[in-house]
Specification:
Elements: H1 3-26, H2 37-47, E1 55-58, E2 64-69, E3 72-79, E4 82-89, H3 90-94, E5 98-99, E6 102-104, E7 113-115, H4 124-127
Antiparallel strand pairs: 1-2, 2-3, 3-4, 5-6, 6-7
Length: 128
């Protein structure tokens, strides 16, 4: 094997190793930040542009949101490095019971489990 072929082989191996390293680095998930009311309202406006939001309830860990829009519940919850959005009938979402500091919203596809923390369920601030 002559020097030119060896240099080409080493260069190709190095380029492949760099591309593999770059693709592995690019797949590292960046955690979504905890939601506050401003961020929650912005996400709700992006996901549900045709629905006006009357009130917002944020889960105790900031990883979930339940908002009321007339007779609909607009729900966001953290999944991976982003958020999932679903809507469902308000009465079905609010009727879910809390167990061990979490509420499971079985009325929605994906049935999110929202952490209550020190928050009450059903959310009194948006129940009326």
């Amino acid at each position: 094997m002559d020097n030119a072929l060896l240099a080409q082989l080493l260069g190709s191996a190095l380029a492949v190793a760099l591309l593999v390293g770059l693709s592995a680095w690019a797949r590292i998930a960046r955690p979504a930040p905890a939601l506050d009311e401003t961020a929650a309202r912005k996400l709700l406006a992006d996901e549900f542009p045709d629905h006006g939001v009357q009130a917002v309830w944020i889960a105790g860990d900031g990883a979930g949101v339940v908002a009321r829009s007339a007779d609909l519940a607009l729900v966001l919850w953290r999944k991976g490095d982003g958020y999932v959005a679903r809507s469902g009938p308000w009465r079905d979402v609010v009727s879910a019971g809390a167990v061990d500091g979490r509420v499971r919203l079985t009325a929605l596809d994906g049935a999110p489990r929202l952490s209550l923390g020190d928050r009450a369920w059903p959310p009194a601030e948006i129940a009326a």
